[in-house]
Write a structure and sequence with these properties.
By secondary structure, the chain is mainly α. The chain is built from ten helices and two strands; from the N terminus they run H-H-H-H-H-H-E-E-H-H-H-H. Helix content is about 60%, strand content about 0%. Strands 1-2 form a two-stranded parallel ribbon.
Length: about 280
């Protein structure tokens, strides 16, 4: 079972009955279905199982791009590489793309989940660990992407009945408008009022090496919860559910572990390079 709170929980994903007990997930009882005629069984397309590889693969792409982005930051910050290596027009656009993809997919996963309170608290605990480690490393992260997603998941757990009550056609309009209108908050808007950094309002002395305020990102997350309903109801083409992605999908199922470990590993690699370079 996959316990990554940032991915679709296996026990809450749409279930598809299997005609062959051997095709069922290990450790679960096979669903009882009428036996299909031999000709029909041979010609029927293979049913999608619990996980959706394309979603996992997209999450895998997002986490790989995020690791590369952080590695480039470490090269600039600790090895004195030129700043353009980390921030330039191409990478700046890609940064928002893979971050937005990651957050959107977290919203899809939240619509699948039956226990977003637990998922949110797990993510919040991981975010607190990130803050502790980064403060010790001198790379303070007070409200990064994990912190933001933890708050979004808990907010959705609290308000889910309201979002499900809204007409479906209205949700994407609200989320798009909210994203556009609050886009100026993405890097923080300065204020003299302390304690509002999670909403994108920062004081002049505020610093977080990874900063993702709720505004505008919560609207991207909520848009993901809206899309998750259509995914869960199998409204998309069958290829979306049946396509297998052998390398990226397994990576996407372990995003939280990768997120927690990648920066200490990258930091160690950069320090080794620095040690050899100074000899």
């Amino acid at each position: 079972m996959n316990n990554d709170p940032l991915s679709i929980p296996e026990e809450t994903e749409p279930e598809t009955p299997a005609a062959d007990p051997a095709a069922c997930t290990p450790g679960t009882a096979p669903a009882t279905v009428p036996a299909a005629p031999a000709a029909d069984a041979a010609s029927a397309p293979k049913k999608a199982e619990g996980r959706i590889d394309l979603i996992d693969a997209a999450r895998g792409v997002a986490i790989i791009l995020m690791v590369i982005h952080h590695f480039l930051y470490d090269l600039v910050a600790f090895l004195g590489m030129p700043l353009w290596l980390f921030t330039n027009p191409v990478l700046d656009v890609l940064h928002y793309f893979f971050a937005g993809l990651f957050i959107f997919l977290a919203g899809i996963s939240s619509d699948f989940s039956r226990n977003n309170w637990l998922r949110g608290l797990k993510t919040l605990a991981a975010a607190a660990l990130v803050t502790l480690v980064t403060v010790l490393m001198g790379m303070d992260i007070w409200f990064g992407i994990l912190h933001m997603m933890a708050v979004c998941i808990l907010f959705f757990a609290l308000t889910r009945p309201f979002w499900e009550w809204l007409p479906r056609w209205l949700m994407p309009l609200l989320c798009t408008a909210g994203t556009v209108l609050t886009a100026p908050f993405v890097n923080g808007v300065q204020t003299n009022i302390p304690g509002l950094f999670m909403f994108g309002l920062i004081t002049p002395d505020f610093y977080s090496s990874d900063y993702f305020p709720l505004l505008p990102w919560i609207f991207v997350f909520l848009l993901g919860t809206w899309a998750g309903r259509y995914v869960k109801e199998k409204r998309l083409p069958s290829a979306f559910y049946e396509t297998r992605v052998p390398v990226l999908a397994p990576i996407g199922r372990r995003t939280l572990l990768i997120f927690l470990l990648h920066q200490p590993v990258l930091y160690g690699i950069v320090m080794i390079i620095r040690w050899f370079a100074e000899r």
